[in-house]
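batch_manifest entry 22 of 60
target: Beta-ketoacyl-[acyl-carrier-protein] synthase III
source organism: Streptomyces griseomycini
requested by: lab member K.T.
priority: normal
notes from requester: please return tokens only, no post-processing; we will run our own comparison against the previous entry in this batch. if the run fails, retry once and flag.
--- input ---
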Amino acid sequence: MIGSRIAAVGHYQPAGVLTNEDLAGMVDTSDEWITSRVGIRTRHIAGPDEPVDELAAHAAAKALAAAGRTPADIDLVLVATSTAIDRSPNMAARVAARLGVPAPAAMDVNVVCAGFTHALATADHAVRAGSAGRALVVGADKMSEVTDWTDRSTCVLVGDGAGAAVVEAAGENGIGPVLWGSVPEMGHAVRIEGTPPRFAQEGQSVYRWATTRLPSLARQACEKAGLAPEDLAAVVLHQANLRIIEPLARRIGAVNAVVARDVTESGNTSAASIPLAFSKLVERGAVSTGDPVLLFGFGGNLSYAGQVVRCP
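--- output ---
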């Protein structure tokens, strides 16, 4: 059995920025109301001519360049998304076509906000089993396309973007064992459904579950990697709400870790949120090569998945 590692990461956000002040002109809200409840100040919004696969391809191209690899080096493409409007071709095939990846296995992973960590675990398993040599793992969502912009409880939350990682075989395993699961009876708590599809959630139910159950689950992910929470250099949780992220990081016990707070400038980008925040930490030098970083996603279904990775 061989190991796998993240060779490089990359991210992309559309140029359009929507501020809290902009939203106050659209619905009954204010900057103070939004920041006090969710901590978000701005979010990036894609235009009508910027589809999900375009966001994903930009992030993937940056990750490939950072890894010093070309599309021809990739034999597995996994795209985590819950905003693929068409059933076929899937986003992974579209991204592969945009990049010129010649003959990859191409699969979408729809686990909503926990999609990237599920896809990363799937790539890790495929590489370690020998069925893939090098994988491109992308989290990308265009939440603005499934948002009711008259609903102030949800429209203030969302943003668009993508993050990506190149996963490849390694002598030692740089991606820890995944801890994943779901709470099926709470699957209704986060939804993207209907015609046209619209995002809705039961915010208080998600908040209560996340703040009571997630700390122990995150610690279990650390245990699977053979680490204590205080060994972590960084914690990258799904960027849903700053009022969830900050207390969770404290309850996990990651006292020496940098905590990703990208939600303040990007909003909730669903499957993109973890790779987007992680890539920004790497880009600005907040973490160093080899540092242990906890990635933990949670959200729709109600699904969760987390693992400790070594920083590229």
